[in-house]
């Protein structure tokens, strides 16, 4: 494998989300979030799409976020392991309802604020830079009940207040921020992305794009507050990325691939360039969508654009306009894709496309000309623990080595990339399925899909591999 060169100070590390690791779902004064209502099994998908009949956990279901991997209590031990790997950065998210249990309380909850102070202090003790996502898929349930979540303009105000409290409290500790995790997920998993619950017969597009507008304005207001309160901080957007390939060179397929990409770029176009692109306005017209915008919105979006483009990359996507080809679909981070005959898939049907990583990074940089931050990438796989307590996860090393090598190529291409935080450096609850058995970690956690296990942590083979990668600043990717 070719020697790779990464810039000095490159932010190597891992990425987590509060609801997938913390557990302690009602401890320390925390309020209920939408993720706390997502059980494992069949029901989960229905709910994630916004077909929600109860806004309370229901009898007879298992809710993996309630305990997760208990990071709320084990963060010191876990951070020590990240430090042992040499992490330069750890991406975490803050749970909105730890800070404001109802989402819109008059005063923040001190116990919640203190918890993240403790986490940041622990990271800084080891020289690990905290990278903080303000909202990672968890909307306060109270705001869903009272306001219909992001369909209401009120949420903009509540989010701005929440973000402002965070900037004020953590201004001395956190220099890298992101507003909404995978903001484009709102179009695919509406309950997850924006806490939207639909009633029969509603125009879902109207509601989704109205909610999107609210999130975009809220994001810009958070950028504004961040720049005012922490002038030396960087605040980014976060896109679930992965370029869409046309199945053939038929111009219809090419156009369809462009449209698919624009469905996602739309969000980042607004967050990074500061205005709605022409194709989005046309989409609104063609679909008779009437998006309510306030007179000040144009100015807010224009003047408070993001400093960097955070993105996740797991897989590329393929589209076609041929109904026969469209039958050959595969999964992949919720974005349905036609199967790519040139590529292999993970055990969960996600296409494995390292070259696509370079393509995606180049495409994003060409489009935005802003630094990129890879804040998620990894392989969800089943791991076996040997009788002597080892996990030989060569498949994970292979996946990561090939992807990191392509990031190095992108850097050689002139793409500015400030860091790489792989997803789930310790095994965590899967966002899409709620499973524990879909593991991404360098550190194994003894827990199964039903919640059984000691929660004991074990270093996998990839733990030692990633340590070597970081130590060599990406030069040594050998297994
Ligand atoms: C991203 C999310 O979509 O993909 C994470 O930001 C998520 O929260 C990750 O965990 C991997 O997806 P999954 O479904 O394998 O956990």
UniProtKB/TrEMBL annotation:
Q: Where is the signal peptide?
A: none
Task: Name a single GO biological process.
Answer: carbohydrate catabolic process
Molecular function, one GO term: 6-phospho-beta-glucosidase activity
What keywords appear on the UniProt entry? Glycosidase, Hydrolase
EC number(s) per UniProt?
3.2.1.86
Q: Name one GO cellular component term.
A: cytosol
InterPro entries in the record, alphabetically?
Answer: GH (IPR017853), GH_1_N_CS (IPR033132), Glyco_hydro_1 (IPR001360), Glyco_hydro_1_AS (IPR018120)
Record keyword Hydrolase present: yes
Please give the PROSITE patterns that the UniProt record associates with this protein: GLYCOSYL_HYDROL_F1_1, GLYCOSYL_HYDROL_F1_2
Active site (record annotation)? 376 (nucleophile)
Is Hydrolase found in the keyword set?
yes
Q: Name one Pfam family in it.
A: Glyco_hydro_1
Q: Which family does it belong to?
A: Belongs to the glycosyl hydrolase 1 family.
Protein name from the UniProt record: 6-phospho-beta-glucosidase
Q: Which organism is it from?
A: Robertmurraya kyonggiensis
Tell me the classification of the organism that encodes this protein.
Bacteria, Bacillati, Bacillota, Bacilli, Bacillales
């Amino acid at each position: 494998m070719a020697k790779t060169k990464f810039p000095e100070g490159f932010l190597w590390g891992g990425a987590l989300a509060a609801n997938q690791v913390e557990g302690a779902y009602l401890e320390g004064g925390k309020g209920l979030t939408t993720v706390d209502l997502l059980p494992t099994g069949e029901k989960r998908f229905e709910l994630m799409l916004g077909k929600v009949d109860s806004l309370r956990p229901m009898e007879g279901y298992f809710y993996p976020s309630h305990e997760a991997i208990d990071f709320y209590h084990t963060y010191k031990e876990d951070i020590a392991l990240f430090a042992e790997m040499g992490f330069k950065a750890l991406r975490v998210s803050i749970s909105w309802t730890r800070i404001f249990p109802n989402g819109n309380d008059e005063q923040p909850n001190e116990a919640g604020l203190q918890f993240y102070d403790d986490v940041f202090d622990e990271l800084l003790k080891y020289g690990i830079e905290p990278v903080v996502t303000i909202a990672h898929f968890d909307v306060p349930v109270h705001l869903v009940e009272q306001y219909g979540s992001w369909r209401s303009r009120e949420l903009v105000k509540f989010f701005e207040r929440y973000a402002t409290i965070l900037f004020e409290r953590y201004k001395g500790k956190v220099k890298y921020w992101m507003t909404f995790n995978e903001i484009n997920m709102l179009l695919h998993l509406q309950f997850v992305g924006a806490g939207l619950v639909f009633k029969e017969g509603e125009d879902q597009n109207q509601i989704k794009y109205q909610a999107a507008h609210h999130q975009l304005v809220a994001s810009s207001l958070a950028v504004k507050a961040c720049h005012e309160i922490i002038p030396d901080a960087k605040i980014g957007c976060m896109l679930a990325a992965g370029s869409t390939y046309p199945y053939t060179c038929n111009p219809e397929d090419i156009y369809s691939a462009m449209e698919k990409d624009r469905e996602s770029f739309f969000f980042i176009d607004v967050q990074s360039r500061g205005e709605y692109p022409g194709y989005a306005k046309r989409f609104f017209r063609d679909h008779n969508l009437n998006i309510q915008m306030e007179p000040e919105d144009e100015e807010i979006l224009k003047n408070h654009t993001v400093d960097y483009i955070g993105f996740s990359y797991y897989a590329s996507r393929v589209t076609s306009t041929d109904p026969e080809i469209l039958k050959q679909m595969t999964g992949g981070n919720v974005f349905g894709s036609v199967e790519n005959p040139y590529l292999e898939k993970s055990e969960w049907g996600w296409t494995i496309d390292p070259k696509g990583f370079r393509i995606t990074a180049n495409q994003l940089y060409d489009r935005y000309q802003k630094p990129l931050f890879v804040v998620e990438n990894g392989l969800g796989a089943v791991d076996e623990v040997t009788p002597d307590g080892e996990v030989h996860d060569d498949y994970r090393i292979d996946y990561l080595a090939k992807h990191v090598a392509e990031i190095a190529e992108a850097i050689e291409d002139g793409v500015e990339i400030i860091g790489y935080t792989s997803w789930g450096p310790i095994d965590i609850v899967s966002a899409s399925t709620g499973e524990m058995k879909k593991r991404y970690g360098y550190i194994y956690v003894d827990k199964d899909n039903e919640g059984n296990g000691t929660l004991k942590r074990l270093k996998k083979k990839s733990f030692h591999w990633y340590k070597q990668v970081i130590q060599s600043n990406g030069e040594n990717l050998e297994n």
